[in-house]
C-alpha cells in the first residue's frame, strides 16, 4: 500500500506498549497540553497541527475564562511541547463585507497547493463552517462561510478531487445536536459549494449510533482515503464520544469501501472522562511519516486538554478490512 504524504521523521512517536494489542494506542505522557497552558485559558482541546518549517504549527481551540470559544496559533519544535499565543488569531476579512464570527471552534488545518487552509465551526446565526487561510502563520485571512447554518465538522481533503476542492461536513442544529450524518461537497473556488453527496450516517454499531462527524483531514493511500471520524452514543449520563475509521473511494469519496464496526479509541482514561465535558475523545489532526507509515493522532480529551494516540496507517487499513 502506498501512502501519499511527505517524509516526516520528527513526528512524535512511542512504540506500542508491551502486551498491548490495540491498533491505536495512547501516548504514555498524555495529555500533552494542559487546560491552563495559555494566557486566560479555561481549556485547550480539539486542535489542529501541521508540519511547518523545521517543526510544527497549529491552530488551537482555546476557550477563555469568560468561556468564549476562539482560535489561537501555536508553534512547536517536536509536536509535543507547544507555545500557544496569548490572544486569538485576528483574521483579515477577505469577504465582500465583514462576516461576523460570534465564536470559532474545532479548527482543521491542511496545506493545499500554496497555502494552509483552515476550516472551523463559525458562529454566524448559529454554527456553520468558517474558512480561512494563511501562507505563513503570521497573517490570516477569512473568506466566506462554506455553508448555511447549521453545520459543523467541515473537513477539507488535502488535494482537489476531479479538479474541485472537496469538503466533508455534518449538517446539524443550533444546540447539542442529537443527530448527524457526514456529507461531501465540492467547490471550484473555496467559496461556492455544491454537488452534495451523502457519505455515511449515524447508526451501524452502538458507539456511533447517535451522530458522527469527520475528524482529521483524510489521509490518501493507494487503497482509498483513510478517514478518522468521531461517533456518539447516548448513555443515561449523556453523550459519549469515541472515534473510528473508514476507507473512502479515491475518486468518489462519498462511496464507502469499509467502515469500522468497533471504535479505535473510546473515553477510558481520566483525562478523557473527567473535564468540562466528560467522556469525550475527539480526533482533529494527524501527522504521518510517509517513510515508516507512523501516524500520530491529536485529539481532544473531555473538552479540556489535548492528547496523542499512535498507530501505523497500514495496520489501521488492514484492521478495517477484518473488523467484523
Ligand atoms: C460538539 C463540539 C465539540 C465537542 C463535543 C463534545 O458539539 O462542541 O467541540 O468536543 O461537542 O462536547
From TrEMBL:
Q: Which GO terms describe its molecular function?
A: glycosyltransferase activity
Keywords attached to this entry:
Glycosyltransferase, Transferase
What domain of life is recorded for the organism? Bacteria
Q: Does the keyword Glycosyltransferase apply?
A: yes
SUPFAM superfamilies (alphabetical)? Arabinanase/levansucrase/invertase (SSF75005)
Pfam families annotated for this entry? Glyco_hydro_130
Hey, which family's this protein in? Answer: Belongs to the glycosyl hydrolase 130 family.
**Name used for this protein in its record:** Glycosylase
Amino acid at each position: 500500500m502506498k501512502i501519499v504524504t511527505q517524509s516526516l521523521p520528527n513526528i512524535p512517536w512511542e512504540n506500542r506498549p508491551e502486551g498491548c494489542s490495540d491498533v491505536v494506542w495512547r501516548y504514555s505522557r498524555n495529555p500533552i497540553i494542559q487546560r491552563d497552558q495559555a494566557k486566560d485559558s479555561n481549556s485547550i482541546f480539539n486542535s489542529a497541527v501541521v508540519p511547518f518549517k523545521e517543526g510544527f504549527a497549529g491552530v488551537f481551540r482555546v476557550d477563555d475564562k469568560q468561556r468564549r470559544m476562539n482560535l489561537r496559533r501555536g508553534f512547536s519544535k517536536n509536536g509535543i511541547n507547544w507555545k500557544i499565543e496569548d490572544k486569538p488569531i485576528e483574521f483579515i476579512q477577505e469577504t465582500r463585507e465583514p462576516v461576523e464570527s460570534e465564536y470559532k471552534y474545532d479548527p482543521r488545518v491542511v496545506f493545499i497547493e500554496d497555502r494552509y487552509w483552515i476550516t472551523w465551526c463559525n458562529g454566524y446565526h448559529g454554527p456553520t463552517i468558517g474558512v480561512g487561510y494563511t501562507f505563513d502563520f503570521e497573517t490570516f485571512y477569512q473568506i466566506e462561510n462554506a455553508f448555511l447554518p447549521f453545520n459543523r465538522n467541515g473537513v477539507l481533503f488535502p488535494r482537489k478531487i476531479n479538479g474541485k476542492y472537496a469538503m466533508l461536513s455534518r449538517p446539524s442544529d443550533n444546540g447539542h445536536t442529537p443527530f448527524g450524518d457526514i456529507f461531501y461537497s465540492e467547490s471550484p473556488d473555496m467559496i461556492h459549494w455544491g454537488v452534495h453527496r451523502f457519505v455515511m450516517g449515524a447508526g451501524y454499531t452502538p458507539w456511533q449510533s447517535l451522530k458522527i462527524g469527520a475528524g482529521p483531514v483524510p489521509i490518501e493511500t493507494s487503497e482509498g482515503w483513510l478517514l478518522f471520524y468521531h461517533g456518539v452514543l447516548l448513555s443515561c449520563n449523556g453523550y459519549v464520544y469515541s472515534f473510528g475509521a473508514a476507507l473512502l473511494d479515491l475518486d468518489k469519496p462519498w462511496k464507502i469501501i469499509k467502515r469500522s464496526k468497533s471504535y479505535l479509541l473510546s473515553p477510558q482514561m481520566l483525562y478523557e472522562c473527567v473535564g468540562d465535558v466528560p467522556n469525550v475523545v475527539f480526533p482533529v489532526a494527524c501527522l504521518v511519516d510517509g517513510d515508516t507509515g507512523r501516524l500520530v493522532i491529536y485529539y481532544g480529551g473531555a473538552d479540556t486538554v489535548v492528547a496523542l494516540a499512535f498507530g501505523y496507517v497500514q495496520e489501521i487499513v488492514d484492521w478495517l478490512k477484518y473488523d467484523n
